[in-house]
């Protein structure tokens, strides 16, 4: 799994935090108490939108802007 706060891969899931976004259980994790506390803060003040946990926003689908190649 990937930690939704620090984005480390292959970490052991310590806390299931999917409920913060009404996600089903076992879909969003953090790897440590530290990440849990910090991510919880972001969730509470709304800043998680900028943090963009990968488990929620999934694969990168960043399309270049229409003007990119001009
Ligand atoms: Zn972490």
What does this structure look like?
A two-stranded antiparallel sheet has the order 1-2. It is 30% helix and 6% strand. The model has no long low-confidence stretch (mean pLDDT 82). It has one domain (15-69). By secondary structure, it is mainly alpha-helical. It binds zinc ion.
Main sheet: strands, sense, barrel: 2 strands, antiparallel
Number of domains: 1
DSSP E strands, number = 2
What oligomerization state is this entry in?
single chain
By secondary-structure content and strand pairing, the structural class works out as mainly alpha
Summed over residues and divided by their number, the pLDDT gives a mean of 82
Give every kind of bound small molecule, once each: zinc ion
CA-CA gap between termini: 39 Å
Helix content: 25-40%
Unreliable sequence segments: none
Tell me the overall shape: globular
Q: What is the alpha-carbon Rg in Å?
A: 14 Å
Strand line-up across the major sheet: 1-2
Count of helical regions: 3
Strand content: 5-15%
- The helix-strand sequence is EEHHH
């Amino acid at each position: 799994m990937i930690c939704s706060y620090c984005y480390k891969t292959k970490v052991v899931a310590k806390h299931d935090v999917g409920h913060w976004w009404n996600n089903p259980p076992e879909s969003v994790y953090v790897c440590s108490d530290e990440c849990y506390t910090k991510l919880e803060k972001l969730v509470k003040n709304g800043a998680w939108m900028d943090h963009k946990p990968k488990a929620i926003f999934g694969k990168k689908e960043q399309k270049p802007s229409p003007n990119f190649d001009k």
